[in-house]
Design goal:
Chain lengths: 299, 234
């Protein structure tokens, strides 16, 4: 039954692609790098995992978009060996709906997501005024993994069908235009069915955003460090990469839009996990381009 | 302002002199990413390998999001036997991490100095962590005043510093120094400071707009220096 449902969703999405053939598709092909690091062993500086992250976004017209990304592992020092596989990270379709008079903005995404989840995701943004916005996110997802090793016969192909999980968050954003600073408060249910709340202060610069955040979540014992924690905090840096101007070509080849780094003091790899739906998802740019706050800096 | 562009790098990523923090701040929006060589004379006495102190390096990233606040994250490389096995090789297999913060509560005026409060290693696992550290934990209050003589800039800096760990108490109390920037080369700054235990001399300069270099002698004997990218984000 679920397979039929999934099939019908895919057929429906492809029919939309076909019907939008009168619009000139614009494809963006890009590549960036992802740095993962973990400080879980006192006698080791860091475990490091570096992936190349080539991806594409195909704009199908009428705010429809197809996005896909693969991970090409470059360095794996200390992370699980399955991270050394060439991997499909995501492949999904999304549709943005804008009700500008009512200040309602929605983004629906379906398909394969990052952090090894597939299913459907909805994001809602409601700018109440020039300095306050309500936003929410709902997801129904399940586990998937698709990867193979270049150097050996190892591989994995998993589509879990019985472990569907609801995730949902609700948040408030406050924009202080004079200081180009944003305060965010968001809480809800995360990927491992855990509850948590996060506060973040973001200082936006011309091509960079830096934030500090604090998290409170359900108690969890980290199997690596044997520590049990309920609170965490850290900082994030999102650096936008040049070129900063939009190309008008039909097919654009470019570097990834950003490089991001998160430092999480008590990161346990479990609490408050979120999946990604955009190959270039980051904490600086909103999932929907809206005339509020930074306005995504037109990046 | 003149003095805002002359803040030197300190080994933890905050603006300051060599070992002594000052009330000077970076220009708002400046980020630093750098590395520093630390002579063993300036390393915490408890950070040892086979009972001996060692020379080390720090790495840091820091940001001045607003004119009045500076934040830094960094770590000092820790030399030890691989897997803490005395039979295995010695190398920089570990590190001690720390956060630092500085708030300038009073900007400098014509008749009064700037005033800043802050701390190094202000947040961490402390005694309960694997390293049992707080090796760098200290709190300080600083005042800085700059005077201009025909384009030459001379500044005096006085800091009161309290260290948490007993083995760092040799640097406790009132410390300070003098800095000088010549009129013919403003990016250069010459430093002489008393850190509570030694007199350190050195100089730093911003080269090619984005590179900050510092070279110093701790106690007139031990080299101390570093290099950082000085990135204006605004």
């Amino acid at each position: 039954m679920r397979k039929k449902l999934l099939l019908s969703v895919i057929i429906c999405l492809f029919s939309v692609v076909k019907s939008s053939a009168q619009y000139q598709p614009v494809a963006e092909v890009f590549c960036g790098a992802e740095l993962n690091y973990a400080d879980v062993n006192f006698t080791r500086l860091y475990n490091v995992l570096v992936n190349l992250t080539p991806g594409t976004k195909v704009h199908l017209g009428k705010d429809w978009e197809f996005a896909a990304q693969v991970y090409i592992p470059i360095v794996n020092s200390g992370f699980d060996s399955r991270n050394s596989m060439l991997r499909l990270n995501m492949a999904n379709f999304s549709k943005v709906l804008k009700f500008e008079k009512a200040h309602q903005y929605l983004r629906f995404t379906a398909g394969l997501f990052g952090k090894e989840r597939y299913g459907a995701d909805v994001r809602w943004m409601y700018p109440i005024n020039s300095w306050m916005m309500v936003q929410a996110r709902l997801g129904l997802t399940n586990y998937w993994a698709l990867g193979f090793s270049v150097s050996s016969s190892d591989g994995e192909s998993v589509f879990e069908s019985s472990q569907w999980s609801f995730t949902g968050t609700l948040g408030l954003n406050f924009w202080l235009n004079r200081w180009k600073t944003e305060f965010r408060l968001v809480g809800g249910r995360y990927l491992n069915k855990d509850l948590g709340v996060e506060g973040e202060a973001v200082r936006h610069f011309k091509h960079c955003s830096v934030s500090v955040f604090a998290q409170a979540h359900e108690k969890y014992k980290n199997p690596n460090t044997k520590k049990t924690s309920r609170f965490s905090g850290g900082f994030r840096i999102v650096m936008m990469l040049p070129p900063y101007t939009k190309s008008k070509k039909s097919i654009v080849l470019r570097p990834a839009s950003n490089f991001r780094l998160t430092y999480n003091a008590q990161s346990d790899g479990y609490s408050m996990r979120k999946f990604t739906t955009d190959p270039e998802e980051n904490e600086r740019t909103y999932p929907i381009r809206i005339p509020w706050g930074t306005g995504n800096f037109d990046e | 302002m003149l003095f805002a562009t002359l803040s030197a790098q300190q080994y933890v990523g905050l603006s300051g002199m060599i070992h002594v923090p000052t009330a000077d701040m970076d220009t708002a929006g400046v980020a630093r990413v750098g590395a520093h060589f630390i002579p063993k004379s300036m390393m915490p006495d408890r950070m040892t390998i086979d009972g001996e102190k060692f020379n080390s390096f720090t790495n840091y990233v820091s940001l001045t999001p607003f004119r009045w606040i500076q934040l830094s994250y960094g770590y000092t490389l820790w030399k030890m036997h691989q897997d803490r096995d005395p039979k295995k090789s010695v190398g920089f297999y570990s590190k001690d991490r720390y956060f630092s913060v500085k708030l300038q509560v009073l900007p400098e005026g014509k008749w009064w100095p700037s005033l800043a409060v802050g701390g190094n290693d202000v947040w961490g696992s402390g005694d309960g962590g694997a390293s049992g550290s707080n090796f760098y934990r200290n709190w300080f209050v600083s005042v800085s005043k700059h005077l201009d003589f025909n384009g030459h800039s001379i500044a005096g800096h006085v800091t009161y510093r309290h260290w948490k760990r007993d083995f760092n108490h040799k640097w406790e109390g009132v410390v300070g120094g003098v800095t000088y920037s010549p009129s013919f080369y403003k990016p250069l700054r010459v430093i002489c400071e008393w850190d509570g235990n030694e007199v350190n001399i050195g100089a730093d300069a911003r080269l090619f707009k984005y590179v900050l270099i510092q070279c110093a002698l701790s106690d007139f004997r031990f080299f101390h220096g570093g290099l950082c990218l000085y990135i204006p984000l605004l």
